[in-house]
C-alpha cells in the first residue's frame, strides 16, 4: 500500500493511503464542504459563528478519520467528530432538540468506550498503534470473542442498526439542514470505515459471526423502513432510511466474514460503493427536503421535484443509478460467499428490501411536497450546493462501475440485471397507489422510537424515586434544594449511564491487559 504521510502531531499520524482510504476521504470532504456551504448560506448572519464552532470541528474530525494512519489518530478524530456533532443536534435549543442531544451523546459515549476497549486490547496484543495488521493480532488472541462483541456493539450504535435505528433520525431532524446533510452523508460512514479496518476480514474462524452480521443487516434493512413509514417528518424518514441502508453494508461485511478467502474483495467493493452512493444521495436528499419547491414557480417546483427524485431513485437501486451499482456489488459479494442458508436468504430478500425502500422514498417525496409551502426560500448559493451534490450523486453511477466492482461493470447494461432493479420500483409505486385508493395511512410515531421511550422511562423512574424520597422527608429548605437538583440529575441521566459503562469498560481493560502481560 502506497501512502503519503503527513507530519505527525504528538503521537497522531495521518496519511493518504490506498484507494479505499482516498475514496472515503474524498467523499467525506465533498459532503462536508458542500453541506457547509448550504449551512452557512442559509443560516442567519448572527448565528454563523456559533454554527462554525460546532460544524468545523465536526468536519475536521470526520475527514481526519478517513486519513488516520494509526489507531490513536483515528480514535482522536472519531471523538472530535462525534462530540462536536452533539452541538449540532442540540442546535434549536428547545426541549425536543435537547432530548435528542442527550440521547445522542449518551449513545456516542458508549460507542466510543466500546471502540476504545477494542483498540486498547488490539494495541496491547500487537504492541503497535498502526492500523495495518491490527485486526490480525487481536483475531488470534484468546479474547477475540470478547473483542468481536465489543466491536459489533460499537458499530451497531454508530451505524444505527436494529434497536439503535433511532439515533440517526434524531440527528437528521434536529440539526440545521446543512449540518444534517453532512451528518447524513459522512457521519455513519466512519462506522463503515471502522468495519473495514478493525473487523477480521480475510481471517478464517469467524464464519458464525459472518452469519450474525448478515442477520443484523437484514433486520436493520427492514426495521429501518418500517419505522420510517411510521415517521412524521421528511428528515426523520431519511434517518430511518439511512439505518436501513447501513444494514446492507452489514450484509456485505457478513459475506466477507463467512468466506474470507473468496468474498473479501467483492465485499470491500460493495462497502466502498455503498459509502459513495449513500453519502452523496442522502446528503442531496436532506438538502432537497429543505430547499425543494420553496418560493418557486410551477416550472421551478417541477424541476426541484425531478432533482429530488433522482437521489431517491438511487436509494431504491433503480437502473443506471449509483444505488444500482452498489447493489450489483452486493450481489457479487453474496455470490462469492458460497451457498449457505443465511446467504441464500439475503439474496432472496435483497429485491424485497428495494421494494420497501421504494415505499419509504415515495412517502418521503409526498411529505416534502406537502411541507414545501411553509419553507423559506434558500439563498442561491445554498441551492447551488444542493444542485452540486445531486450532480455528484448522478455522476457516481457512471464512475462507480469502473472503480468499485468488476461485476457491476460487466452487468451494468445486462437486461436481466436492469429488470431485477426495475420491478421493485414499479412494485413500490403500485403498492402506494393501492394504499391511497384504499385510504390506508400509517400511524405517527415519535422520532427516536425505542431510544426516546427508553430515555423517557428512565427519567420517569428517577422522578418516581425522587418522589418516594421526598415523602419520607420533611419539606425543609434542604429538601427543596434537593428537588431542584433532581431536575439536573434527570437531564444528566443518559450521560451518567454512558459514563458508567465507560468506567466499567476501563476496569475490564485493565484486567485483560494485566492478564495479557
How large is the radius of gyration?
23 Å
**Uncertain segments of ≥5 residues (pLDDT<50)?**
1-11, 474-495
Number of strands: 2
Shape: globular
Report the mean per-residue pLDDT as an integer. 81
Give the oligomeric state.
Answer: single chain
Could you say which structural class the secondary elements and strand pairing correspond to? mainly alpha
SSE order in H/E notation? EEHHHHHHHHHHHHHHHHHHHH
The domain count comes to 1
Largest sheet, in brief, is: 2 strands, antiparallel
Share of residues in helices? over 70%
Number of helices: 20
Strand order of the largest sheet: 1-2
Strand content: under 5%
Report the end-to-end length measured between terminal Cα atoms.
32 Å
Describe this structure in words.
The protein has 517 residues and is mainly α. The chain has one domain. Helix content is 78%, strand content 1%. It is built from 20 helices and two strands. Strands 1-2 form a two-stranded antiparallel sheet. The protein is globular. The model is unreliable at 1-11 and 474-495 (pLDDT under 50).
Name the descriptors:
single chain; 517 residues; mainly alpha; two-stranded antiparallel sheet; 20 helices; globular
Helix and strand layout, with pairings?
Elements: E1 4-5, E2 15-16, H1 19-42, H2 48-67, H3 71-89, H4 95-126, H5 134-139, H6 144-159, H7 167-174, H8 177-187, H9 189-198, H10 207-230, H11 234-258, H12 264-291, H13 298-316, H14 322-336, H15 341-371, H16 380-403, H17 406-411, H18 415-437, H19 449-471, H20 477-516
Antiparallel strand pairs: 1-2
Amino acid at each position: 500500500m502506497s501512502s503519503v504521510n503527513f507530519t505527525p502531531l504528538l503521537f497522531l499520524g495521518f496519511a493518504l493511503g490506498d484507494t479505499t482510504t482516498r475514496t472515503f476521504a474524498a467523499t467525506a470532504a465533498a459532503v462536508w464542504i458542500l453541506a457547509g456551504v448550504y449551512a452557512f448560506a442559509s443560516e442567519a448572519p448572527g448565528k454563523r459563528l456559533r454554527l462554525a464552532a460546532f460544524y468545523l470541528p465536526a468536519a475536521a474530525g470526520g475527514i481526519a478519520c478517513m486519513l488516520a494512519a494509526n489507531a490513536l489518530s483515528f480514535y482522536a478524530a472519531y471523538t472530535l467528530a462525534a462530540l462536536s456533532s452533539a452541538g449540532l443536534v442540540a442546535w434549536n435549543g428547545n426541549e425536543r432538540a435537547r432530548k435528542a442531544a442527550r440521547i445522542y451523546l449518551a449513545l456516542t459515549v458508549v460507542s466510543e468506550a466500546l471502540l476504545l476497549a477494542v483498540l486498547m486490547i488490539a494495541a496491547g496484543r500487537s504492541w503497535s498503534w498502526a492500523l495495518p495488521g491490527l485486526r490480525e493480532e487481536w483475531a488470534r488472541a484468546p479474547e477475540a470473542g470478547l473483542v468481536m462483541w465489543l466491536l459489533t456493539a460499537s458499530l451497531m450504535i454508530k451505524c444505527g442498526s436494529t434497536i439503535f435505528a433511532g439515533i440517526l433520525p434524531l440527528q437528521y431532524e434536529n440539526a440545521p439542514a446543512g449540518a444534517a446533510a453532512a451528518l447524513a452523508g459522512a457521519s455513519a460512514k466512519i462506522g463503515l470505515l471502522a468495519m473495514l479496518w478493525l473487523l477480521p476480514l480475510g481471517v478464517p474462524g469467524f464464519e458464525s459471526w459472518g452469519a450474525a452480521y448478515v442477520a443484523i443487516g437484514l433486520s436493520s434493512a427492514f426495521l429501518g423502513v418500517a419505522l420510517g413509514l411510521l415517521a412524521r417528518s421528511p428528515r426523520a424518514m431519511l434517518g430511518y432510511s439511512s439505518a436501513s441502508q447501513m444494514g446492507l453494508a452489514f450484509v456485505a461485511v457478513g459475506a466477507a466474514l463467512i468466506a474470507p478467502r473468496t468474498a473479501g474483495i467483492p465485499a470491500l467493493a460493495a462497502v466502498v460503493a455503498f459509502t459513495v452512493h449513500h453519502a452523496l444521495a442522502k446528503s442531496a436528499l436532506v438538502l432537497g427536503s429543505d430547499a425543494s419547491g420553496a418560493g418557486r414557480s410551477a416550472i421551478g417546483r417541477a424541476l426541484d421535484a425531478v432533482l429530488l427524485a433522482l437521489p431517491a431513485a438511487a436509494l431504491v437501486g433503480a437502473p443506471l443509478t449509483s444505488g444500482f451499482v452498489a447493489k450489483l456489488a452486493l450481489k457479487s459479494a453474496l455470490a462469492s460467499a458460497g451457498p449457505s442458508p443465511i446467504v441464500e436468504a439475503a439474496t432472496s430478500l435483497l429485491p424485497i428490501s428495494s421494494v420497501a425502500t421504494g415505499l419509504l422514498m415515495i412517502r418521503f417525496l409526498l411529505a416534502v411536497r406537502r411541507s414545501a409551502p411553509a419553507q423559506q426560500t434558500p439563498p442561491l448559493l445554498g441551492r447551488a450546493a444542493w444542485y452540486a451534490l445531486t450532480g455528484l450523486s448522478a455522476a457516481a453511477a457512471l464512475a462507480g462501475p469502473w472503480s468499485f466492482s468488476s461485476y457491476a461493470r460487466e452487468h451494468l447494461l445486462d437486461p436481466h440485471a436492469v429488470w431485477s432493479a426495475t420491478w421493485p420500483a414499479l412494485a413500490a409505486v403500485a403498492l402506494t397507489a393501492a394504499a391511497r385508493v384504499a385510504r390506508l395511512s400509517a400511524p405517527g410515531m415519535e422520532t427516536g422510537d425505542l431510544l426516546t421511550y427508553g430515555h423517557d422511562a428512565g427519567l420517569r423512574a428517577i422522578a418516581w424515586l425522587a418522589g418516594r424520597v421526598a415523602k419520607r422527608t420533611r419539606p425543609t429548605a434542604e429538601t427543596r434544594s434537593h428537588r431542584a437538583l433532581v431536575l439536573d440529575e434527570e437531564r444528566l441521566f443518559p450521560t451518567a449511564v454512558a459514563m458508567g459503562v465507560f468506567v466499567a469498560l476501563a476496569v475490564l481493560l485493565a484486567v485483560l491487559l494485566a492478564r495479557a502481560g
